[in-house]
Structure formats: C-alpha cells, structure tokens
TrEMBL record:
Keywords from the UniProt entry: ATP-binding, Coiled coil, Kinase, Membrane, Nucleotide-binding, Phosphoprotein, Transferase, Transmembrane, Transmembrane helix, Two-component regulatory system
Name used for this protein in its record: histidine kinase
Enzyme's top EC category: transferase
Segments crossing the lipid bilayer: 49-69, 75-98, 110-130, 145-170
C-alpha cells in the first residue's frame, strides 16, 4: 500500500535528524561496526606511526564512529574516510559514506568532486602499498602492469559501485517524493471536484424546486383566482338570478377541472422514469460513489430535465390557448381585449409556454388587485422575437379587489421575470400614469 505525502510526513517520528527509529538503529549499527573495524586496523597503524597501540585503536574507533552522522553530514563522513585512507582504515565508512553522499540532495558537482578525491586517494594509497609489497617481496612480481592494474581496479571498485548505487537510490527516492506530491495534489483536486459537484447538484435541486414552485403558482393561482371570483359572484346572485348562479357554478366546476388537469400533467412529468429524471438529483448516494464527470453532467442537466420531458411530450400551454385564457377572464366579469400583431408562427415550446404564463399571471394579478378594471392584452410577432403586454386601468370601484379576499404571496412578478430572463428576454413591470399597472416582456424567438 502506498502512502500519500501527508501520511509520509506524519510517519517521521525518529530521534534527532533521523526520520524513523529503524534508520537511527541502522546508522548506530553501521557506526559500531566501523568503529570496531577502524580500531582493529589501528594495530598496524600504531606500529607504522610509532605510537602506542591504545592510542592507535582509540583513534580508529573515534574515526569509525563518524559514520553515525552520515545522514546529517555526508560530506564530513567522506572527508574523514579520505583522510584516514593512508592509514588503511575506514573502508566500510568510505563505501557507506560515498553511497550516502550520492543519494543525498547535494549538487552533482560536489558529489563528483568528493568521489574523485576518494578515488584518487585510494588509487595513490593502493599504488604505494602494492609497490612496497613488490619491493619487499611480499607480492610475487608479475610484471610492470600489475601495480597500476591493482591500483586502478581497487580504486574503481571501492568508489564506483557505491556512487552509482547512491545515485540510483537518490533518483528513485526523488521520484517517489514527486509521486507522493502528485498523489496529494490529485487527492485535493478530487476533493475539490467532489465538493463542486455536490454544490452543483444542490444548485440543480434548488433550481428544480424553484421551477416547480413557479409552475404550481402559475397553474393554481390563476385557476383558483377565477374560481374565487366566480364563487363570489355566485354568492351574490344565488337568490336573485338562479340561472346565472347555475352558469357561474358550472364555470367554477370547469375551472377546478382544468386546474386538476394541469396539476396531473405536471405531476406526471415529475414521475417520469425514462431518461434523466428530476428525482435523480435527490439521490442519497454519496458523490464519490460515481464518476465525477457523470456527477457534473447530471447536476448540470438536472434543473432542465423535467422541462425537457415536458417539451418532448407536448404538454403545457401554448399561444393558441390565449384566446381561451382571455375568454375565461371575460367570463369572470373582467373587461379584457386581446389584440395580435404580426404573422403568427410556431415557436419553441419553452417560448410559447413562457409567453402564455406571463399573460396568465398578469391577468391573475388584475383579478387580485384591480377587479373590474379594463384590461388590454397585446401580442406582437416580430422577426427575431415575440413581445407581449398586459395593461389595466384603475379599478372602477376602490376596494373591489379586496372584496374577493384573494391572497397574494408576492411571487408572481418574480416568477414572470425569472422565466423571461431565463430565455434571454427582457421583462418590465410597473404602475402607469393613469393609476393602472403594466406588464411587458420581450422573448427571443429562438428561446
């Protein structure tokens, strides 16, 4: 199992400059072996130097113990090994020191210089010892080539392998550190992507809730408002004009059935299981359990999923239903006039539905706030856009709107603006100089 850089850093619990306790134990063991070796080699060094044997052994033990600091000061270890090479001691320290030096983060020129010094020192010492051995007769003369061959072979053998091995281990160690850092970076990036995907999914859920609330408001508010108006009229004429009361009751029933039909269509869209469904954004599965690209795509498409399903099924109102919408308001007692300019044509479903909802909500507001006011609905088909305007005058009787007791949540104008702006259009609303109210919207024909 590989560990990330953070886990690797947390594992550095060794004493002093050691990363781990096992590294400290290893260096202590090597230093002990080196001290014993140098102390043993102090016997011939003491005889050759003319010093007491205990002094030579102590000198060798102290020199060999320098290997304990090989990770902290690798240059000092190599220099000490070079310095005691003429005394023919410190071979283990030289090998381990060169390996540690080559595996360290020091510049290559320093490693090459110290390795060259060590090789030259070993070459000179070996050459002198071999030549002295041939002169004394300790070594049988094999020719003039023997001393240089032994010197070069020994110096290369004592220098090149530890240096090459150290360079390899150092390069591998740096590669592993780079991979750990990259793994940490990827892990942080994946975490950020997961958080971003979760945020996008939450945004998609909120968008879908807003859209559903807007649809519910448009469907229910208009139909129920008309039903309340007709119910109030029914209550007023129930005893005076029974025929008109029956007619108003029939209209109330028609309005209720239409409202239920539209609600069923909307709920049917929400219950769809083919393709992308809005309910998918409410899944309780963790974000990390699926590919991040799929999560991002699902989150981006979730807000429009039910809307696309509605368009494909052909459900929802269109511009052809405006006359019926205006007729329903007229039947409720509103004086409303519809005028259409330009040549009618077929638009995208979202464009026609938005235009219809804008007119519907504007008429609903007239019922709520200006009952009995004369209203004019204008629809203009232009080249690259479709425009609509609903304008009403002041109510003929102040306080007539409040008699119907129609509640208002204040979300109608906000919902209309969100619909129009969402399609790249322009929405303007506000009171007129005559005391009425005007709602205007322009929607690009392409949606």
């Amino acid at each position: 199992m590989t560990t990330t850089g953070e886990d690797h850093t947390a594992a550095l619990t060794g004493p002093w400059w050691w990363a781990r306790w096992r590294s400290a134990v290893l260096d202590g063991s090597l230093a002990l072996v080196s001290s014993v070796e140098c102390a043993t080699e102090g016997f011939p060094f003491a005889d050759a130097a003319g010093v007491p044997v205990p002094v030579g052994m102590l000198f060798g033990a102290v020199a060999g113990s320098v290997l304990l600091f090989r990770r902290r000061w690798p240059i000092a270890v190599v220099l000490v090994s070079i310095a005691i090479t003429p005394a023919q001691m410190g071979f283990l320290m030289g090998l381990v020191g060169l390996y540690t030096l080559a595996a360290s983060e020091l510049p290559r020129r320093i490693i090459g210089a110290l390795a060259g010094m060590s090789m030259v020192g070993m070459l000179i010492v070996t050459y002198v010892r071999a030549h002295q051995g041939m002169v004394r007769g300790d070594v049988a003369p094999l020719g003039d080539w023997f001393v240089p061959f032994v010197s070069i072979t020994t110096s290369l053998g004592m220098t090149a392998p530890p240096v090459l091995l150290g360079l390899y281990v150092g390069a591998r160690r740096r590669l592993m550190e780079s991979l750990r850092e990259r793994a940490d970076s990827l892990e942080r990036e994946l975490q950020l992507l997961a958080e971003r995907a979760e945020e996008r999914a939450e945004w998609a859920r909120n968008e879908e809730r807003t859209r559903i609330a807007r649809e519910m408001h448009d469907v229910v508010a208009h139909r129920v408002s008309l039903m309340v108006v007709h119910a109030a009229a029914l209550q007023a004429v129930a005893r005076k004009d029974p025929e008109k009361a029956v007619k108003n009751a029939s209209l109330v029933g028609d309005m209720g059935r239409q409202a239920l039909t539209e609600l069923r269509e909307m709920l049917g869209v929400l219950r769809r299981t083919d393709g992308a469904v809005p309910g998918s954004v409410y899944s309780s599965a963790p974000v990390q359990a699926v590919p991040l690209a799929a999560v991002g795509a699902a989150a981006a498409a979730a807000a429009a999923a039910s809307r696309e399903a509605e368009e494909e099924s052909g459900e929802g109102p269109c511009l052809d239903d405006l006359e019926e919408l205006v007729g329903q308001s007229a039947a409720a007692g509103m004086v409303v006039d519809l005028s259409v300019e330009g040549k009618a044509r077929v638009y995208a479903a979202t464009v026609e539905q938005t235009a219809y909802r804008v007119v519907q909500e504007a008429l609903t507001n007239v019922h709520k706030h200006a009952a009995g006011a004369k209203t004019r609905v204008r629809l203009a088909h232009r080249g690259a856009e479709i425009a609509m305007q609903v304008e009403n005058g002041p109510p003929p009787e102040p306080g007539a709107a409040s008699d119907a007791r129609l509640p208002s949540g204040g979300n109608g104008l906000v919902g209309m603006k969100e619909r129009v702006v969402g399609l790249g259009g322009v929405f303007v609303s506000g009171p007129t100089d005559a005391g009425g109210f005007r709602v205007s919207a322009v929607i690009p024909a392409g949606g």
